[in-house]
Design goal:
The structure is a single chain. Helix 1 crosses helix 6. This protein is 32% helix and 22% strand. Strand 2, helix 6 and strand 3 form a beta-alpha-beta unit.
Length: 268
Amino acid sequence: MTAETIHEEVRAYYAAAATQATAGGCCTDDPHAIGGALYSALERAELPEAAVLASLGCGNPIAVADLHEGERVLDLGSGGGIDVLLSAKRVGPTGRAIGLDMTNEMLALAQRNAAEAGATNVEFVRGHIENIPLPTESVDVVISNCVINLAADKHEVFAEIARVLKPGGRMGVTDIVAEDHLNAEQRAERGSYCGCVAGALSVSEFRGGLEAVGLTDISVTRTHDVADGMISAIVKAKKPANAETLVDLSPRSLPVAGSGCCGGGGCC
């Protein structure tokens, strides 16, 4: 599969999911997409119903991100906006939560959810996670919920995470990864690309990819099994505080959709 076909397959799948959630229905039959059930009742009660319905993730990155007042948080593949809205509450009015997605239907759904929630410290941009349309060293935390496995070029995703993080910043994501004994063909046998399985990295590949872009303190922690040899995991990493400052502080040239209390996007 080419990058273009992967992007289009993923876009179409999650556009349909957004349409279903907008209509008030569950957005997927995928058994790997546990979604809203992974959030506490208190968290779900804080959000518009459509944001919970549109959650297709394999974990709860808010529970592991350790967010603090005043931080800038970036959610890769922000879907109907569930993690952006929860992040916005935790970083408070002096912080900011930013969602990135390539799917127009998810962006529209998240715009509606953010407006309904009355969020004023959120922002959503349209683009691919392999080419993040944000300035270098502009966020404190990167989160993601079962989206990196959908990327066409994981190395570019890791490089972009390292680029946009401030020195001393951190990453806390949930994702589906393969045990090291499974090859690519065996992963594909266990599920589809859009179902977050066929495109998953192995544990060693995920760790090695983060190390290659200079991130440290890497941990991959299993949370539950999703198929034979395929696990949902929490992945954490940090950008060293003494990382060399990059000189390119200009944003990438991708279109921006919405600002303030509107916008959104998502995958898985």
